[in-house]
C-alpha cells in the first residue's frame, strides 16, 4: 500500500469513494450525507493548498482518502474514508499517521477531529491512535451530536 498526495488522475475515483463512504457512515442523517457530499466534493476538486488531501493506493487502485485543513498551528482531520473491501487492513491508520507526520513537519502542535458518537469503530480507532475525547458537541452541525477528539503532537 502506498500513501501519497491525492493525484489529479484519481479525482473521480476519490469522489466515488467519498460517496460510498458517506452512504455507509454510521450516525449521519440523509441531510448530513448530502451536505457533506457537496462540501467534500468541492474540496477534492479545489486547488486550494489550505487542504491536505491524501490517498492510499494498492496496485494503482484508490482504496482510501483523507482530507485535512489547517488553522493557527492545528490540523483538522475533516474526513477519512476507506473502501469497504479494504477496511480493517490499517489503511485509515496509515493515512492518519501520514497526516500526523506532515503536521509535525509544518510545526503543528495538535490534530483534532469530530466524529458521530454512534460511530464506535471510528472512535475506537482514534483512541487506539492516542486521540482523546476533548468535548461532546450537542446539536452541532445539522443539529447532530458530535464527539470532538484531539491528539497533541508535541
Core attributes:
single chain, 154 residues, alpha+beta, Aminopeptidase, 7-stranded mixed sheet, 4 helices, 7 strands
Care to give the gist of this entry?
The chain has one domain (2-152): Aminopeptidase, CATH 3.40.630. By secondary structure, it is of the alpha+beta class.
Word description of this protein:
By secondary structure, the chain is an alpha+beta fold. It has one domain: Gcn5-related N-acetyltransferase (GNAT) (Aminopeptidase, 3-Layer(aba) Sandwich), CATH 3.40.630.30. The protein contains four helices and seven strands, in the order βααβββαβαββ. The chain has a seven-stranded mixed beta sheet, with helices on both faces. Strand 6 and strand 7 form a beta hairpin. Helix 1 (11-23) packs antiparallel against helix 2 (30-45). The longest helix has 16 residues, at 30-45.
Amino acid at each position: 500500500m502506498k500513501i501519497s498526495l491525492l493525484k489529479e488522475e484519481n479525482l473521480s475515483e476519490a469522489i466515488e469513494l467519498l460517496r460510498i463512504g458517506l452512504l455507509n457512515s454510521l450516525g449521519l442523517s440523509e441531510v448530513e450525507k448530502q451536505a457533506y457530499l457537496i462540501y467534500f466534493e468541492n474540496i477534492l476538486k479545489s486547488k486550494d493548498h489550505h487542504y491536505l488531501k491524501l490517498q492510499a493506493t494498492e496496485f494503482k487502485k484508490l482504496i482510501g482518502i483523507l482530507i485535512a485543513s489547517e488553522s493557527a498551528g492545528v490540523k483538522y482531520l475533516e474526513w477519512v474514508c476507506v473502501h469497504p473491501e479494504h477496511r480493517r487492513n490499517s489503511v485509515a491508520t496509515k493515512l492518519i499517521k501520514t497526516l500526523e507526520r506532515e503536521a509535525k513537519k509544518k510545526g503543528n502542535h495538535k490534530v483534532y477531529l469530530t466524529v458521530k458518537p454512534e460511530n464506535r469503530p471510528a472512535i475506537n480507532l482514534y483512541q487506539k491512535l492516542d486521540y482523546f475525547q476533548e468535548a461532546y458537541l450537542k446539536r452541532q452541525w445539522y443539529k447532530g451530536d458530535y464527539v470532538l477528539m484531539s491528539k497533541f503532537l508535541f
